[in-house]
Every structure is written in structure tokens, then in C-alpha cells.
């Protein structure tokens, strides 16, 4: 299947490791040039070299996307380098656990800035450029815990991930017909150095039980499996799909909608 991504340009935030790096590699494999960012320049350079091995041009911009002006710089430097922006994959995100009563304004503002506002800001800056091309699309990396409860201490994470799904559906209406907007909801994704990998190494038996009880396909998801779903959603082959949130979770989620 030709995904029609040859010679297009994508921005992927938080792509020095983990899911973001695999997404950048998958897009590059399809012939897409990629702009990537993360805070740690050395890790980002290593990731950029890996993405280049797929045959793509890569622009690697070390930055903290929560700092004022940085989302806009990411977009402008990408446009200056490649002359077009077809796709934005809003991947950057993190977690801050705590009970609702303990979490401070600062906690809320910090995680909203990282998991939600960074994507709003990059998207707002990118949309005028995306309107210049045919078949532009945005894809946010949410979580199954943006769709349903995911255990204790996740009020902040769940709220930011639900907000991403919500805004993507509103944007799909606002930006149609020129730009499609979707989100992906991964379940528990294990990759070397990631949080699930760490937990498996620390508590192998507990994690084995977790998988058995929670994931229908009886294994963790792979970052490549999320990357493949995102690449498809950003492609011409997904031209009828907008305003959707796709679970990529091996049957982990329990929500009926
Ligand atoms: N892993 C899972 O099981 C899972 C499940 C559901 C959803 N998700 C979502 O998928 C996305 C990726 O998850 P992941 O597990 O791959 O994350 P990860 O391993 O923690 O990687 C996060 C990436 O974002 C960068 N980053 C973090 N803060 C940043 C900032 N302020 N500015 C710029 N870059 C920043 C990191 O590099 P630096 O630290 O150098 O900045 C790194 O490249 C997240 O949105 C996460 O919520 C993950």
C-alpha cells in the first residue's frame, strides 16, 4: 500500500526516544522529511542519526516545548528548512501522579502546558502552513487513560489526555475540509528505556500478572505498533478519517465508546 507520504514534511515532538522516535522513523521510511525536538540535545542528535538512516532529511531542534515562543520556533524553523508542513504529530507528554487533594496549581499548569498547550501552540502556528498543501493532517498521542479511568493518582494525566481527544474532535470540524485531525490512544507500550521496561525489570512477576489481568493480547504493546497506526492516520490512505480517536492497546481498554 502506497501511503503517499513521499516528499512530505512532518513535525514530531518529543522524538529523542520512545514512541516519538519510532513515529519519526516510520514516517521517514515512507519518504517523509521530519523535524524532531526534545530537551536533551545529545539524545536528540542520536535519534536524528537513526531517523536519517531511513533515508529522510531530518531537522533536530533541541528545545523545551513548554517555554514561551518555542512551539512557534519549531514550526517556523521547519518551514524555513523544508518549505512545507504536511503533518504535525503531537507526541510529547509526561505524567505527574498524585491524589487530587495533593496536586498544586503548579502541578496542573506544568502538565497542562506539556501535555495539552504545547500541542495547541504548535498546531496553531502550523495550520496556516498546512493549509498551503493538499492532504495535511494532525495526530495527537493521547492515551487509553484519556478515555477511561486508569487507576489511582492519575487525575492530572487523565484530564490532559481527555482534553487532547476533545480538542482534536473540535479541530477536525473547525479545520475541515483542508486539514484532518485525529488522535491515537496507546495502552501500555514497552520499549527499551521506557517506563514499562523499567517496571518489568524492577518487578517482573508483578508486571507479568498486570499483563495477564489487563491486556487481552497478553503482551505489552510495541512502539512500532503505535508508530504504524499514526503513520497510516497521517497518510492519504486515511483520507476519510478525521475526528477519530484510535485505540492502539491490544484490547487493554474497557471503555464501550
Ligand atoms: N509509553 C506508554 O506506555 C504510553 C502509553 C500511552 C500514552 N503514551 C504517550 O505517548 C507519548 C510518548 O510517550 P513515551 O513513553 O514514548 O515518552 P518518553 O519515553 O518519556 O519520551 C518523551 C519524549 O519527549 C521529550 N520531552 C519531554 N519533555 C519535553 C519538553 N518539555 N520539551 C520537549 N521535549 C520533551 C523527551 O526528551 P527529553 O527528556 O530530552 O526532553 C523524549 O524525547 C506521551 O504523550 C505519552 O503520554 C505513552
Tell me briefly what this model is.
With 257 residues, the protein is of the alpha/beta class. 44% of the residues lie in helices and 16% in strands. It has one domain: Rossmann fold.
- Might you state the CATH topology name? Rossmann fold
Overall helicity:
40-55%
Instruction: Return the CATH class.
Output: Alpha Beta
| Total domain count | 1
Parts with pLDDT < 50 across at least 5 consecutive residues = none
What structural class do the secondary elements suggest?
alpha/beta
H/E element sequence: EHEHEHEHEHEEHHEHE
CATH superfamily: NAD(P)-binding Rossmann-like Domain
Small molecules held by this entry: NADP nicotinamide-adenine-dinucleotide phosphate
Tally of contiguous helical segments: 8
Distinctive features:
single chain, 257 residues, alpha/beta, Rossmann fold, 7-stranded parallel beta sheet, two-stranded parallel sheet, 44% helix, 16% strand, binds NADP nicotinamide-adenine-dinucleotide phosphate
Explained architecture:
The chain has 257 residues and is an alpha/beta fold. Helix 4 packs parallel to helix 5 (155-174). It has helices spanning 18-29, 41-52, 70-82, 105-130, 155-174, 195-202, 204-214, 223-233; strands at 9-13, 33-38, 58-62, 87-90, 136-141, 179-186, 189-190, 221-222, 245-248. 44% of the residues lie in helices and 16% in strands. Strands 3-2-1-4-5-6-9 form a 7-stranded parallel β-sheet, sandwiched between helices. Strands 7-8 form a two-stranded parallel ribbon. Helix 2 links the parallel strand 2 (33-38) and strand 3 (58-62). The chain starts with 8 loop residues before the first strand and ends in a 9-residue tail after the last strand. NADP nicotinamide-adenine-dinucleotide phosphate binds next to helix 1 and strand 2. InterPro entries: NAD(P)-bd_dom_sf (IPR036291), Sc_DH/Rdtase_CS (IPR020904), SDR_fam (IPR002347). It holds the Pfam family adh_short_C2. It comes from Salinibacter ruber. It is an enzyme of class 1 (oxidoreductase).
Amino acid at each position: 500500500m502506497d501511503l503517499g507520504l513521499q516528499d512530505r514534511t512532518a513535525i514530531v515532538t518529543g522524538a529523542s526516544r520512545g514512541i516519538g522516535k519510532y513515529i519519526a522513523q516510520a514516517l521517514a521510511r515512507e519518504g517523509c522529511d521530519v523535524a524532531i525536538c526534545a530537551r536533551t540535545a545529545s539524545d536528540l542528535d542520536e535519534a536524528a542519526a537513526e531517523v536519517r538512516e531511513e533515508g529522510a532529511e531530518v531537522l533536530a531542534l533541541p528545545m523545551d516545548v513548554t517555554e514561551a515562543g518555542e512551539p512557534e520556533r519549531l514550526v517556523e524553523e521547519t518551514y524555513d528548512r523544508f518549505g512545507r508542513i504536511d503533518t504535525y504529530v503531537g507526541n510529547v507528554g509526561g505524567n505527574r501522579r498524585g491524589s487530587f487533594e495533593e496536586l498544586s496549581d503548579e502541578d496542573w499548569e506544568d502538565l497542562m502546558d506539556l501535555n495539552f498547550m504545547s500541542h495547541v501552540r504548535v498546531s496553531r502556528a502550523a495550520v496556516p502552513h498546512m493549509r498551503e498543501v493538499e492532504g495535511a493532517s494532525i495526530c495527537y498521542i493521547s492515551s487509553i487513560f484519556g478515555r477511561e479511568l486508569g487507576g489511582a493518582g492519575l487525575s492530572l494525566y487523565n484530564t490532559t489526555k481527555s482534553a487532547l481527544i476533545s480538542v482534536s474532535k473540535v479541530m477536525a470540524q473547525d479545520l475541515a475540509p483542508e486539514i484532518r485531525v485525529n488522535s491515537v490512544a496507546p495502552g501500555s507500550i514497552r520499549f527499551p528505556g521506557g517506563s514499562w521496561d523499567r517496571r518489568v525489570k524492577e518487578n517482573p512477576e508483578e508486571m507479568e500478572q498486570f499483563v495477564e489481568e489487563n491486556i487481552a493480547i497478553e503482551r505489552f504493546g510495541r512502539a512500532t505498533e503505535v508508530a504504524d497506526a499514526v503513520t497510516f492516520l497521517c497518510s492519504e490512505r486515511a483520507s476519510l478519517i478525521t475526528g477519530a480517536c484510535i485505540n492502539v492497546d491490544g484490547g487493554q481498554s474497557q471503555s464501550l465508546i
